[in-house]
Amino acid sequence: MKRILALISVLAAIAVLIIPSGVAVADQAYHTDRLPFHSLNLSDYPLKQGFMINIHMNGPNNFEKKEFQLNGAKPNTEFFIYRRFEEAVYNPQGVLLIPKGAQAYSGYSILTDEHGNGHCELKLAPDDLVVVRGVPSLYMTVVLYEGMRPGGIPAYETEAFRTFLDWKW
After folding, report:
1. Triad 58, 60, 65: Cα angle to 5°
2. 8 Å CB contact between 79 and 155
3. Is residue 158 pLDDT above 80, yes or no?
4. What does DSSP assign to residue 115?
5. What's the mean per-residue pLDDT of the chain?
6. Class level of CATH domain 22-164
7. Between these two residues, 147 and 13, which has the higher pLDDT value?
8. DSSP conformational letter for 158
9. Domain extents for the chain?
10. pLDDT score recorded for residue 134
11. For residue 158, which of 90, 88, 67, 96 has the smallest C-alpha distance?
């Protein structure tokens, strides 16, 4: 009996040393994506290169991180970041949370300099996503508006993409 207790104690100590608490590991369902932006009107909104990097950390503090980069875009302009939902979003009980085509402001914007270069980083905690808790995936497009909606003008957007949500913390 003493040997069994000693063995359990040793295994528990090893587990504590090997598995640190509170560490976020990479999301098992969704890995990093790099999604290019394209201009919706090249004469008014030029673009050499633009992209969004979508990273899911799957952790208790940082669930998701998005980086936005514009190069050679319209200079000295503020672009507001919106998500457009390409399909309706329902909770696990079948209740409609977000209708198809709805757009949600992210709370962030990208400001370009005199060369049309701009960068923005958006970090989301699990509590920022409480409205979609339990939803396995979202199909959306990211749209950059010059000015806030409803009067803003859509300037750049990504292709539609599916992001998978892995709620394991």
Report:
1. 50
2. yes
3. yes
4. T
5. 81
6. mainly beta
7. 147
8. P
9. 22-164
10. 76
11. 67
Model confidence band, residue 57 (pLDDT cutoffs 50, 70, 90): low
Q: Is 13 helix (H, G, I), strand (E, B) or coil?
A: helix
The alpha carbon dihedral of 143, 36, 54, 68 has a sign of negative
108 vs 18: which has the higher pLDDT: 108
d(CA 117, CA 72): 6
pLDDT band at 25 (very low <50, low <70, confident <90, very high): very low
Q: Which residue has the tokens 């962030």?
A: 108
Tokens of 71: 């190069």
Contact 44, 79 (CB under 8 A): no
Structure tokens at 131: 């409205």
| Secondary structure (3-state) at 10 | helix
The position carrying tokens 């000295």 is: 76
Beta bridge partners of 38: 157
Q: What is the pTM of this model?
A: 0.77
- Confidence class of residue 61 from pLDDT cuts 50, 70 and 90? low
**CA-closest candidate to residue 157, choices 141, 146, 169:** 141
Report how far residue 126's alpha carbon sits from residue 61's, in angstroms, rounded to the nearest whole number.
7
Category of 48 on φ-ψ map: left (φ > 0), alpha (ψ -120 to 50) or beta: alpha
Q: H or E stretch including 120?
A: strand 118-124
Six-digit token pair at 89? Answer: 């979003």
